[in-house]
Amino acid sequence: MAEIRLAQVLSAAPVQCGRWTLPGISAFGAYIPRYRLGAETDGWDSPGQRSVANFDEDSVSMAVAAGIDCLQSRDRGEIDGLFFASTTPPYAEKQCASIIANALDLRRDIFTADITDVLRAGTTALKSALDSVAAGSARHVLVVGSDNRQGAPKGESERNSGDGAAAFIISNDRIIAEQAGSHTITENLMDTWRSAGDQFVRSWEDRFAIEEGLERILAEAISGFLNKQGLSVKDVAKLALYSPDARRHGQLVRQLGFQVEQVQDPLFGRMGNTGAAFPLMLLASALEKGAPDQLLLTVSYGDGSDVIGFRTTSNISQPRSGLGVSGYLDSGQVLDSYETYAKWRDIWITDSASRRPQAQSPSVTAMWRESDQNIKFHGAICNQCGYVQYPPQRVCVECQARDDSTAVRLSDKLGTVFTYSLDHLAGTVDTPLTIAVVDFEAGGRVLCMMTDREVDEVKIGLQVEMSFRKLRVVNGIHNYYWKAVPVRQVT
Q1: C-alpha distances out from residue 269 to 47, 93, 374, Å
Q2: What angle do CA 352, 355, 359 make, to 5 degrees?
Q3: Of 141, 342, 365, 430, which is most buried, counting CB atoms within 10 Å of its CB?
């Protein structure tokens, strides 16, 4: 019986070019919010930039955006699982991966999991997906790392942090980077933490955290990986290395013995440390400029370290769609004032907020019942005349056909502003509230809010795309919906 089972496993295992095919990365994507704090920001007092999520963004909404960037021109029906990694999930008790899977319009019969509470959650999710595909329990797994950690105002943690997300499809089909080993160190260490109820990240004495934590553990983890694989430092083409800030990143590189050209730009001064997503975003950045047969290492840190190796294949040279890390980096805008950012994060509470009536709690029953149109953002296309309606209706307004339509996803369709209004009296963080009627290029029309917009750029005919955002949080319920945003343009 054992021989029969082994034969069945071997016959099912994929073979390529006379050897076993190891799982790896078949697609990748990223998301970086539009807005930045920078030298031009009044009250910021720092020469470098860092990315900041808008008031209606969080780790879930950024994960959805990265997932869309990753899934460009891919069949979403192929995805068998989704792992969401973050230290800042909006819920303490409710799965966020299920929200992301629903917003991305993935199948219902997939495995989903949240991996959280530690900075190396991103690489843990990546390794879990690789192991799942290698074991045969899934063929295509989507891994998304997303974080928007918050440091104390004007402190070092706030200056060096950033907000963003990265996504990967792990598979053994059409691989652009094959898994090339891994090594993990696990150690209980209180150097950086955030307890339940804490708004800001805390840290212990700097010398202890660096010498006994970061430097010692990362050195042990990387040397352990190289020894296990029979490699040396010179064999590594790009190192995607975690570090809390630029100065310590440079020190680590020198201590580990890597040359500058071997190290992936950590993007301090442009993006910042994006927490659990940070090593994944650096890996995605390395893949954007990768060439065949390069060894890439992604190294995380947090209660130990994960080191995961990938070797690029000839498929890395194929063109890809989506903005990726570089496209989102080059399409940002610096905020005029630190006060705007502080208002987004509730660091400063203005007295105007107290004069507004308390928002009504959303109906959980209605949210569930209307999930297809609100979260999946499904419209309906008439099977008789091809007219697209949103929200879906039983009767086609064009040809009056009854109960004869097919669901169509609108979240990934481009549109243009047909008309709009600006409400300067609305009780919103982002005044004036911009309401737009959007016509989709593929058909269909929606009335929705606009976000990530400057008032002077809103006009009839503006090209927009849809973005998954928070409407509000009431009674602990995070109410999500799709808003229109101007199409990001690389400057």
Answers
A1: 8, 35, 37
A2: 105
A3: 141
